[in-house]
Amino acid sequence: MEDALPKLPRKTGRPLSFDRDAALEQAMLLFWRHGYESTSLSDLTAAMGVTPPSIYAAFGDKRRLFLAAVHRYLSGPVTAETIIEGAGTAREAARQLLEGSAIAFTGTQTPPGCLLASGAISCSAEAADVQAELAALRGGIEARLAKRIARGKTEGELPGGTDAEALAGFVMAMIQGLSTLARDGASREKLLRVAANAMLAWPSGPSA
Amino acid sequence: MEDALPKLPRKTGRPLSFDRDAALEQAMLLFWRHGYESTSLSDLTAAMGVTPPSIYAAFGDKRRLFLAAVHRYLSGPVTAETIIEGAGTAREAARQLLEGSAIAFTGTQTPPGCLLASGAISCSAEAADVQAELAALRGGIEARLAKRIARGKTEGELPGGTDAEALAGFVMAMIQGLSTLARDGASREKLLRVAANAMLAWPSGPSA
DNA sequence: CATCTTCCATAGTGATCAATATGAAACAAT
DNA sequence: ATTGTTTCATATTGATCACTATGGAAGATG
């Protein structure tokens, strides 16, 4: 095995004077709290401890910095994808998604709510492409969940009449709603009860 | 009965050259689509057909114009309040709220989604008060619904063990989520199926 | 050492932001 | 017609927006 270098070092030139990943994390936290358009470059430079030219050299522009922050946000060890593919049943996948959201949206070290859900809900026409990219990410998760639900139908976990599209949309809508409740100040305990309540809508068995 | 004048006329001075209510409606539609902070004054003046000084004379500032638009948005003949108080059961109130939301969020003559749900989700620190006012409006609706659910428990419509707070939060979260689904392009027909799916989580009867 | 490459810090770009100063215009009252 | 009041259109305010031009600093390479 080769040496596991922490960052692949530049061959030449002045070295980076800041930790790119730590700076990106600060940007993520700021975008998480205030959203894409309401986070200004001067907010970002202050939080990241990096001057504007360095930000632009390292990340491109504000849009690409935001997308990099969203990518980082979604690239933990546990993602929606790993939950959906790893759960034993579609029901268990949905339950873990909802419970995990309730917990993740009420962390004490992070802003309330969800960056993917709240980062670019309403924005100007100029930011329509960023809004569309987040919508596509949400749509991808929903499509994966719908597929998992459809598999549950074929495997007999779910009734044949189950509307996979509506059920996946329902779970996604709940996650969006949990984000808003969290941003409005709801406690983790309440969000968990709301999430548990949502699971009551899950089809009960392979009958009908 | 006095003469029902369409607008109480000024006693003196140059008359208003624009329809205040029509201008407010245009502002509402713009805020509805782009949210509070991402709607600029120049966007507003263009859509309302009114110059900046007239807007400030008629509505105060951008913040009060937005709140006036939200008030107008919420003050139709059918409101969350009339639905909650008018429905025969808490269940019927929830069903009407969800179905009404699915329809209202996918109107062809209005922007997708909900102004109250999406107008100020993530915003800068300067707009925190506006965000808080919308949160308070949402909280008021949720509290009313929770009260109606609690009444359903005492009247035997709902099981004694029903968690009124969680159930009301669940309905509110669903409405928030329906708004995002609509903004992401979901059809009215899909939203209605998602809303119907959500109603499956409703407690079934006065047992347990 | 000199040279090359890359990054940093300072300062500033034009554009747009919300909000206004100014004075003329439009009405009622006299 | 004159006065008083209110609204109008025009132009602009200082602040902030995302972004960058410039030149020196920091390292590797020779």
UniProtKB/TrEMBL annotation, chains A, B:
In which domain of life is the source organism classified? Answer: Bacteria
Indicate the segments forming the HTH tetR-type domain, all copies. Answer: 17-77
DNA-binding region residues: the ranges are 40-59
Q: Which UniProt keywords apply?
A: DNA-binding, Transcription, Transcription regulation
> Which Gene3D superfamilies has this protein been placed in?
Homeodomain-like, Tetracycline Repressor, domain 2
What Pfam families does the annotation carry?
Answer: TetR_C_13, TetR_N
Concerning InterPro entries, the annotation shows: DNA-bd_HTH_TetR-type_CS, Homeodomain-like_sf, HTH_TetR, Tet_transcr_reg_TetR-rel_C_sf, TetR_C
Q: What's the protein name?
A: TetR/AcrR family transcriptional regulator
**Source organism:** Methylobacterium marchantiae
